[in-house]
Structure formats: C-alpha cells, structure tokens
Amino acid sequence: MDEKYDVIVLGTGLKECILSAVMCQAEGKKVLHLDRNNYYGGASASLTPLKNVYEHFGKTCKDLEEFGRGRDWNVDLIPKFLMANGRLMKLLNRTGVERYLDLKSVDSNYVYKAGRIHKIPATEDEALASGLMGLFEKRRFKQFLSYVDQYEVDREKTHKNYDCTKKTMKECYDLFGLDDNTAGYTGHGLALYLDDNYIGNPCLETILRVKLYGQSLAINRNSPYTYPLYGLGELAQGFARLSAIYGGTYMLNTPCEIIRENGKAVKVKAGDKTFHCDMVICDPSYAPDFVRKSEKVVVAICILDHPIADTKDVASVQIIIPPKQARPYKKDYDEGEKRKDIYVTCVGSVHMVTPKDKGFYLATVTTVVEFGDHEKELELGIKLLGNIKEKFVKVYDLYEPTDDGTSSQVFISKSYDATSNFETTYEDALEIYRRATGKREFDFSKVSNPSAEEVL
To answer: β-pairing, 31-34 with 4-10?
Structure first.
C-alpha cells in the first residue's frame, strides 16, 4: 500500500464519496479513503439488517420475526429524496454512477393545510380540483407559474422588465396578487424552503427553485422526487465504487487521526499505519476541534403496517407541514411559535427498503429542533402516520467547519441539514471542491463519459 497520497478522505458519507470519486476520476489524484465504521455511508447510511437499527438507536432488540427477514430492511438515517432534475442527479449521470443504481420515482407529494393533507397538483386537472386555493387565486397562481416557466436568467426578454436580483419575493407575490396561503404553499411546497426567511430576499433564487420543481415534475409526472432502490446508502456506495475504479484505495473499520504540523495536515494515522498526504477531506466527526454546532435536528423513524391515510395508498410519499400550519396546534409551547417545516416521508417494499409481500412501510418525521420538548415538535407529523409498529427517535447536532480549510488543508463538510432533498448536499460538496482545487465547478473536461465496461 502506498505511503503517500494526494488526498486522504475520512468518512464514507455521500459528500465524502462524491469528492473521493471526483478527485480520482476528474483530477487524477491518488486517493486513500478511510472510515472508522464497518459500513459505507456514515451519517447518510442505510442500515441493514434490522437488528443493527435497534443497536444504532440503543433499543433492546426484541423478537423480530414478525418483521420478516432482517436483511430485507434498509433503513435510512437521514430522510431525503433526489430532485429528478437536480444537480445531484446530473452528477450521477455525468460521472456514470447512475449506472450502478436502480432509481424509481416517488409516487406523490402532499402539503398540510388546515388539518388536512392536500396533494400538490401534478396536472392541470389536479390543479383545478385542488382545495389548496380558490378559483380566482388559481388564475393568479397560474400567471405566476407561467412567468416562472418561461424565465431564463441569461435571456433578459423573459424577465418582463422585472429585476429578480433586486425585487424581494414578498414584492413578487404582491405583483401577482398571491395571498399568504398561496405564498406559503409556493415557498414550502414548491421552492422547498425550511422557513420563511426567504421572503425578504431577492426573488431570483425562489423562481429558480420553483422552476427546478417544475422541471423535475415533468420528468417523473407524479412528483419531482426520485429514490434509489435499497435506500440512500446506495448513493455513497456508487460514488465509492467509481473512486475505486479510478484508483482510490478503501479501508473500512479503521480508526483515524489527522496529524498536523505547523497547523497544516501532513499525515493521517490509520490503525497501526501512518500515511502522508497533501490534503484531508472529512466529515465533522473526524475533526471535532475544528467545527461548531449550528442547530439540532430530531428524526423519528417509524415502521408501519399500512400506507399513510388520505394518500390514496401510494407506495411512497412526502408530506410537508409548513410552520404556519403547525402553529395553531402548538399553542402550549412556552418558547414561541414553530418556524421550521416538519417533513414526513414514507417508502416501502416497492423501493426495496422493507420485505416484499409483508405490507410494511418506513416512515420518517423530521424537523429542526426549536423547543425543549423535541418529540412534541414532531407530534403533528406523527399523528398523520396512524398506528405505529415501532419507532426510533434521535436528536443530533448539526456541525459546520470553523474555517475554510485552505490554510490547514483540512476540508470539512457540513452535517446533513433538515432539507427534504439533496440540493444543499451537492452545494456543500461543490464548495469543498472549489476551496480544494480553486475551480468554480466540477471539472470533467479531461474525462470522457465512462463506458459500460468501466462502470459495471
């Protein structure tokens, strides 16, 4: 095994595996990739068999026979879907990793309003029948969507004399005469914001987010989301496989320690071996003295023996509960009002994460922790699930690096946030690549699209 590497990557989370693959494939670097765990995925892993889920959450492993074969369970630690036309999907295609995966669309997308869930319209007929807004509001909303659909950043003609880099989203809503309910549905159901902070920002980002939703919906038809068979851990493993094909060396189940000299990373101690390097890329758990806490997230992973009610018994679904819809039901919070979305997701045997023909589903409810009683913050989402066979709850801190890594040559990723998709995951990986290489975008100029023989 080589003693000197260009890059040593610590942790096999999705971001780290993306960067490992890109550094090998696109940059031609010699990469050593280490993980203290005996499985791929880190914080973005899919745990299997089922008894490992019980161990991970510190629960007593009871008789699991009723749940079928343990290895037929693939339980995601973070609940996210891929946008069908999002940047991560495009990266999967560009690198060839998509060929390692079986991707299947998510059936439906709902938003919670006034005590009920409403399907986010996927067709014109659904839009006309939707209870999310009245008839006249639908006409105004259609005008807004028409503007978004034709908008192109580089074609000033499509801007209609409206400067989206200066006008706020509040001003944009007012321009089209959209009421607060429609604004909430747009910001949280289509633009997929976690909170309402975007309202005072320039409207360009929101317009591009809504446009991405529409483009993704056009690909999948019923929802904008895609999900890999066997769970999200397959994404990290796919990029790890690409890295290995282009020369990356992998060692799992290996304790790791970064060694610095004069403030700069020069080597990594891995078990009883020491490897020299030019830079280190790692998740926050490998550099605890160089990160800070940003916020907390609470996740409840639930095993159901039925689909979620009022979703037409679809096999997979997301439900978004905007904070304004949660507030009327949270009057007993002493600390204030809920300001972050609550997300509910559900997948099952169709996506190969639960045993076939057993009727089980995996549902997750998650939100940013804002108050002392974190499980109470999930209460509204938990109620939507109905009867729960088993529940695993975990609160975890989110971390971010204290510096950009350019001086120390230790580039640390952020923890996975509470958003419902992987767009911010891609952005963080890209930002690390920018700082590590000085390039603006992932550079595949020297790489041809890999052939089937290379990636299979």
So the answer is: parallel
Residue (of 367, 412, 448) closest to 112 by Cα position: 367
- What does DSSP say about strands 410-412 and 273-282: parallel, antiparallel, or unpaired? parallel
334-337, Cβ contacts within 8 angstroms, sequence gap of 24 or more: 335/370, 335/371, 335/372, 336/370, 336/371
Say how far apart CA 77 and CA 46 lie, in whole Å: 6
Name the token pair of 252: 């799992």
Place of tokens 């409207």: 203
Buried b (16+ CB within 10 A) or exposed e, 421-434: bbbebbebbbebbe
DSSP secondary structure string for all residues of 110-161:
EEEETTEEEEPP-SHHHHHH-SSS-HHHHHHHHHHHHHHHH--TT-GGGGTT
Give percent above pLDDT 90 in the chain: 87
Sheet holding 291-304, edge to edge: 116-119, 108-113, 317-321, 342-348, 361-368, 291-304, 390-401
> Binning pLDDT at 50, 70 and 90, where does residue 331 land?
low
What is the distance between the alpha carbons of residues 282 and 11, in angstroms, rounded to a whole number? Answer: 6
Q: Which of 319, 313, 347, 386 is nearest to 76 (CA)?
A: 347
Using alpha carbons only, give the angle 73, 85, 416 rounded to the nearest 5 degrees: 50
Question: Tokens representing 443?
Answer: 């550079």
The string of pLDDT tens digits covering residues 388-406 is 999 999 999 999 999 999 9
DSSP 371-408: SS-HHHHTHHHHHHH-S-SEEEEEEEEEEEESS-STTT
CA dist 19 and 8 (Å) reads 11
Q: Is the pTM of this model over 0.85?
A: yes
Distances (CA, A) of 155 to 147, 266, 310, 364, 374: 13, 48, 42, 41, 46
Percent of the chain with pLDDT over 70: 95
**Which helix or strand (DSSP H or E) is residue 367 part of?**
strand 361-368
* Per-residue model confidence (pLDDT) at position 455: 46
Q: Do 69 and 286 touch, CB atoms closer than 8 A?
A: no
DSSP assignments along 306-360, one per residue: SPPTTSTT-SSEEEEE-HHHHGGG-TT-SS----S-EEEEEEEGGGTSS-TTS--
Strands 317-321 and 342-348: antiparallel
